[in-house]
Amino acid sequence: MRVLFCVILSLLIVGSVVTYLGLPEVQKEPRVLYWVVDGVPARKHQADVFEKWMVDNGYPAVDLRIEVSKSYKVNVVQGVSGVAGDILGCYQGEINLYQSIGLLEDVTDIAQEMGFDVSHTYPAIRPAMLVDGRQYGFPRNVGVGIFWVNVKAFEELGLPTPPEIWTFDEFERVGKAYVQRSNIPDKFQSVYLSQNLRHGIRNIFLRSMGVDMYNETMTGSSLQSPEVEELYHLFYRWTKDLKILATKEGAKALSSGSDVQSSARLYLFSQGNYGLLFAGRWALMYFREIGPEKLSISEIPYQSFRNTTFGYGASTIYKGSKNKDLAYYFLKFMASPAFNKEIIRNADGLPPVPEYATVKEFSKPEQYPEEWGLHDRFREVAEEIAISDSYCPFIPQRMAERYEQAALDKFLMNRMSAKEALKDAAERIENHILGFVSQSERLEKKYRKLLQDQQEIDRLRAAGEMVPLELITNPFYRRYYVEKGWSLPVDDG
User: Fold this and answer.
1) Among 138, 181, 379, 435, which residue's Cβ finds the most Cβ atoms within 10 Å?
2) Secondary structure, 3-state, 274-331
């Protein structure tokens, strides 16, 4: 009898404990995960969708908190100090930068296991997620660079809409007509064909001439090539002589002297101050609010080789995170139907998994029939001509861009000839590379190996022989050499 009483008492105690622990007020709080990313309004809803996705799939409950950061420098300082967020948002070139100083978690094996390896995203963007063949992130969204066209602004001027595919000469003719019909002679110029075009856009123009800002192995700058000098003179003509591109000063004047941020450029485009706007599909998040309602798309003008940039926003995991087990789920979420459908809905770029850019919800969003046809063009451009940007692993991309931008500014202000300005920028980049690799035996060894590859490429090209594609690391030249018949294609997947 005593034994039976003890058994019953024990069961009652266990049942009471289980019931108590099941009460909401005593349940274990969800673990907190910090996501360091830009402040786009869509991020909050994406965080909510992730938390629900975790619960719906039986994964651990998570409290995903957003820390807004627009500066890679902040991530670097916090990461080196051991206090960075669990998930770091990265943009073009930053994965390479962060990994060069050991900030990122290698997710190669777990990505294969959990289903977010690079085979799940676009072939052209896969190399950007890798460093030395190892995976360090997964795209949050993908972008291809095009010109949005304010169709209404052209129609009001009695001008035809720019073609989807056009050359440098056609771009110039359209620009001259647009600014001449829009501005009063000898008065303040308030209308341009486009905003001033930054480094990344200029590199698309340059690539169409058969040259990239870096060489085939990205061990050195190509800024002193004749094509870059030719492009500088072309930009001088478009900016200073014909005034079809806004100068930085002109753009600031239109924005009441403030720094020209994305929101200002989008507004000026909606008002027709710019007939064209270089931006990705993400711009629709703003156009749906501020207009213009009537839009078309034109590729970046080309000389002999159609191309555009293939950019991304990526999610990576901080190597010092205490919550890596949860952060892995976040990258898995980036490849999930739930997240990709969210990107389709809010137009935050192209969905990171290509198959979702083929569904009806992407091509013909029910709420926005005026956008039908636009979304498919982004997918087509991504499939046909988009190429990932090139990032030298031995210099922060933004630093190299500043050197090149400074060279163009000096030339536009008549302080230096194009040749002198480009020589100065190339030397600055070269000096930084040499100083950087000298600080690490590992980096110097990698650099010397790439230099040997570059010498072999140069020798083979001079002899008119085929170049093995494995010698080339620059994504532009990997595509260009194949299309020119100088290399045989291989599967980048």
Assistant:
1) 138
2) ECEEEECHHHHHHHHHHCCCCEEEECCCECCCCCEEEEEEEEEEECCCCCHHHHHHHH
Letter string b/e over residues 124-152, b meaning 16 or more CB atoms within 10 A of that residue's CB: bbbbbbbbeeebbbbbbbbbbbbbbbbbb
Q: Name the residue with higher pLDDT: 132 or 242.
A: 242
Cβ atoms of 75 and 98 closer than 8 Å = yes
pLDDT at 227 over 90: yes
Element spanning 37, H or E: strand 31-37
Cα–Cα distance measured from residue 372 to residue 81, given in angstroms and rounded to the nearest whole number: 48
The string of pLDDT tens digits covering residues 213-226 is 999 999 999 999 99
Write the DSSP string, 345-404. Answer: HHT-SB-SSGGGGGSHHHHS-TT-GGGTTHHHHHHHHHHHTEEEPP--TTS-HHHHHHHH
pTM over 0.85: yes
The mean pLDDT of 444-457, rounded to a whole number, is 96
